[in-house]
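Subject: complex prediction, re-run

Hi both,

The earlier run crashed halfway through, so I resubmitted it with identical inputs.
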Amino acid sequence: MKSGKFWAWVVFALGAAYFFIPLIATVEFSLRMRRGAYSFDAYQIVLGDPRFQATFGYSVVAAIATIILGVLIVVPAAYWIRLRLPQLRPVVEFITLLPLVIPAIVIVFGYIRMYGSNSPLPFLASDMGTNALLVIGYAMLALPYMYRAVDTGLRTIDVRTLTEAAQILGAGWGTIIGRVILPNVLIAVLSGAFLTFAIVIGEFTMASLLNRPAFGPYLQNVGANRAYEPAALAIIAFAITWGCMSLIQILSRFAPRSANRPN
Amino acid sequence: MADPFLSIQHVRKSFGPTTVVEDFNLDVERGEFVSFLGPSGCGKTTVLRMVAGFEEPSAGKIVVGGKDITRLKPNQRNVGMVFQAYALFPNLTVAQNIGFGLKVAGMPKADIDARVAEMLGIIKLPQMADRYPYQLSGGQQQRIALARAIAPKPKLLLLDEPLSALDAKVRVSLREEIRSIQKKLGITTIFVTHDQEEALSISDRIAVMYGGKAEQVGTPFEIYNRPATKFVANFVGTLNVLEGKVTDAAAGTVQVNTQEVSLKGKLNGSKSGDTLSLALRPEAISLGRQPGRDSSLSGEISEVHFLGSVIRVRVGIGGNMVSLDTFNSPATPPPAVGERAEISFSSNDMLVLH
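This time it finished cleanly. Structure:
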């Protein structure tokens, strides 16, 4: 038993080292811009760079738009499937998993062919159209995470009975989704939203091939031309992603407990 | 019944090739408390859900207060419903749950607050307004669900096995509370249950359902004492069923095992030689000959269970087994297994099942 515990700790230590050593090395390297002393110079340069502010701002706006689009599509769809079309669940789950097996580069080339300026739906003919197409693409990339998060949230409540209880009290579909279903899966929706945010902030392929001024292509550009700044940027991006994950954990503590499953 | 408040007329419901409810008819008076009683799968909940609007009848119509509501959506029917699983909204407080229907109806906040306070008073939980459902016991949650259902003053209250998820003690107290609130408010109520004791104890009338049909509709007294079919007799209460053969239809004599019983005036339509099922409630049978009991059968005691105030005795009469209860008397020891015994009863209490 004791020897088992010892090896478990060894495996854990090796895993932790594999994860933390590169991270610590990157942090250490990002602080060595000034010769002979540790400093935050690289961070100051990165955060003061107008291109950083512009691309980061662009990606944040794109992420928010993606989250709104994702919630508008996924919440009613997952709700309706649980309520009325449970036989379709395996099919929908399969469809939502497709973005994990189809590379983003394939999807974006498909977009360029389908929505070019000469196509019947010329999304790529204008900046606004291309931005919209990018958000649609991001919503699709985030679909596996958003759908699973919302579906898991819906599983914790008795969707059918709550819907019927609201209906018999006079509520229409808008009230049912807005006042009964959404508040009870809000934490799950937020989890999906933060995962979406983390994906969008670092996404490179779609933004680059659609030629959008997003944070992902900026990261790549800086990485190709500078020494210390890319390390600082990597740590900033990492902090943002982990910040999102921590928020999911914190918010999940505030999930409403189901009436049918107290505590 | 001159003017029924709720009228369910020739309602049928099929799911694909399976017919769950067949030609169901029922008229309910204003303020009446009617229970649908039957085993699982008999269609009682389906009928209730059709009245609520959650299922659309395949045929027939449902009329409430003279208005055909068959095709109306649930949120257009002004019907209150209490569910087996409570179905309180977990994200809302007790007060918000009770006020939900009123808010949806657009009632001003001050009026909602007053009505919620009134409802909390009626269900005797005035201090619970700010609690969340998970902070309440099952019985409290179901009382809140009842208050939520009746707060918007619905025309009809539907109760779908509301006591099934509760423990025995709470079930009894809550069913009495439901009945008392229903009487106080005079609200027409349909109560679905598979528990005969519940149905018998609180209903004005009971519809006993089996195989998608109402086998019998009547008062608890009628259902228990004059069951119309073999199913009703077997389902409601404990029943001893004896197989008998008509020996002389004109004289009304029936042979049970090798013994003869007189059932004059009860063998309508039977011919000599017909086989009949005869039924007796345990409380209609006495051990030994008793004054006022005109019929008797003899057999052998096969089981004796001492239950404190009551002794349950089972007597074998040929291939038939009869169960009866006698009061414990400290002066008289209970009968012993294997003894010969005579049971007596009044032929008027004997039910002939068709």
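Chain B has a mean pLDDT of 90.

- K.
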